[in-house]
Design goal:
single chain, alpha+beta, Quinone Oxidoreductase, Chain A, domain 1, 6-stranded antiparallel β-sheet, 3-stranded antiparallel β-sheet, 9 strands, 18% helix, 25% strand
Length: 200
């Protein structure tokens, strides 16, 4: 395998015109991490605000900067000590909003921890999973039926849904509408090209 990958990088703050295709080193997963081949990534208000330089604390200030937080794809490689996922698993999730986060979903591959991913339900496409990383998809990924069989199962599902819902972009998109974005785009080089907006 090649030692590089393609991504969409931000050369500097200030304009969407500063986004362009770039080549970056292929990331390697560390202990407890997985590498995901991205099939779709969602575009959120946070990406736009970081790109303009209006909210810089959501991402590490490394240039060229690869943005993108919500993603869906297939596990390509697992790091040491990783037991929750295996190569070939279809997963979805979101990367953290953090000034220490140098990762981005607008790339062919990304690194995520087990806590930043969940198995993608077979009934949900990669584009849908990336654009709607919400409690309903998470419920399906954990095998929670519309009505769980027992009170304890219902409580467990409800608790998981609450944790995921509280972490959604609606609560972490400063200045946004409070609604999760429905826009998603396939990453250059991925096999999925059914999303509504093509990557530049």
């Amino acid at each position: 395998m090649t030692s590089t990958m393609r991504a969409i990088g931000l050369a500097r703050y200030g304009s969407l015109d500063h986004l362009s295709p770039i080549t970056v080193p292929l990331p390697e997963p560390g202990r407890g991490e997985i590498r995901v081949r991205v099939h779709a990534a969602a575009v959120n208000p946070a990406d736009y605000k970081v790109c303009l330089g209006e909210v810089k604390l959501l991402h590490a200030r490394n240039f060229p900067m690869v943005l993108g937080y919500d993603y869906s794809g297939v596990v390509d490689l697992v790091g040491a000590g990783t037991t929750d996922f295996k190569v070939g698993d279809a997963v979805f999730g979101f990367l953290p909003y953090s000034p220490f986060n140098k990762r981005g979903a607008f790339a062919e591959l990304l690194i995520a921890t087990a806590a930043e991913a969940a198995l993608k339900p077979e009934s949900v496409s990669h584009a849908q999973a990336a654009a709607g990383t919400d409690a309903r998809a998470h419920r399906a990924s954990k095998g929670c039926a519309t009505s769980a069989g027992s009170p304890s199962e219902a409580a467990a599902c409800s608790s998981r849904e609450s944790r995921v819902a509280s972490a959604r972009p609606r609560s972490r998109s400063p200045g946004g509408s409070g609604r999760p974005s429905s826009a998603s785009a396939p990453v250059a080089g991925s096999s999925s090209r059914r999303a509504s907006a093509p990557t530049p």
